[in-house]
Amino acid sequence: MSTKTKSTKPKLKVKAKPETAASNSRLKLNTAAIDAARNSLSQGAMTPHYGPWSQDIIQLLNDSLATELVCVLRYKRHHFTAQGLASPKIAEEFLVHAQEEQGHADRLAERIVQLGGQPDFSPDSLAARSHAAYNDALDLKAMIRANLVAERVAIETYSQIITLIGDKDSTTRRLVEDILSNEQEHAEELKDWLAD
């Protein structure tokens, strides 16, 4: 008569994995979030999918707003200074860049309000919050170089913001991607001017 030994290994209980969007064979909307969107009208564009990141996103945008405003001031300064140096073509381009940076600032401020925040235009803290520095150079090459440095800083900053936001806020991400594209154009123009 043979005796069978019972296995002493405990049997593992396999828990059913919670269904996720990745494991579902069908895509389903979150009806609870849709109901919350129906009921929270005072939040405007802010729906539940924004989650806990909205304040962080507002802060990133406010710091970017400060950067854009400092860039406007720097480009305006360089516009008028370059005119005095008899460099009308570059002076005109500095003005165009200043206007485009102002457009970026306006779009960022508008998005901050849409997210339920307040755009921070305080002149007392602009330079401290800006990622790029103000520059009052008098030499044309130094102006171009300072603006190129600022554009490269903006490019790096916006690239990081896009990565940080990811899929947390697609509207803000698209806005920042659009601004980034314009900053890249500025950097290429400035690089070409510096080489001349």
Which structural category do the helix and sheet elements fall into? mainly alpha
Q: What top-tier CATH class fits best? A: Mainly Alpha
CATH hierarchy: architecture? Up-down Bundle
Topology order in helix (H) and strand (E) letters: HHHHHH
Whole-number mean pLDDT: 86
In CATH, what is the homologous superfamily? Ferritin, core subunit, four-helix bundle
Query: What about the largest sheet?
Result: none
Helix content: 55-70%
Work out the strand percent.
Answer: under 5%
Radius of gyration: 26 Å
Unreliable residue runs: 1-19
In CATH terms, what is the fold-level topology?
A: Ferritin
Count of individual beta strands:
0
Q: Give the count of structural domains.
A: 1
Span of the ends, CA to CA? 98 Å
**What sort of overall outline do the alpha carbons produce when their principal axes are compared?**
elongated
Total number of helical segments? 6
What topology does this entry show?
Elements: H1 31-39, H2 54-84, H3 88-114, H4 126-129, H5 140-165, H6 170-195
Helix pairs in contact: 2-3, 2-5, 3-6, 5-6
Protein name: Putative bacterioferritin (Cytochrome b1)
Biased composition (Basic residues): 1-15
GO molecular function, one term: ferroxidase activity
Report on this model:
The chain is mostly helical. It has a single domain, classed as Ferritin (Up-down Bundle), CATH 1.20.1260.10. Helix content is 63%, strand content 0%. It has six helices and no strands.
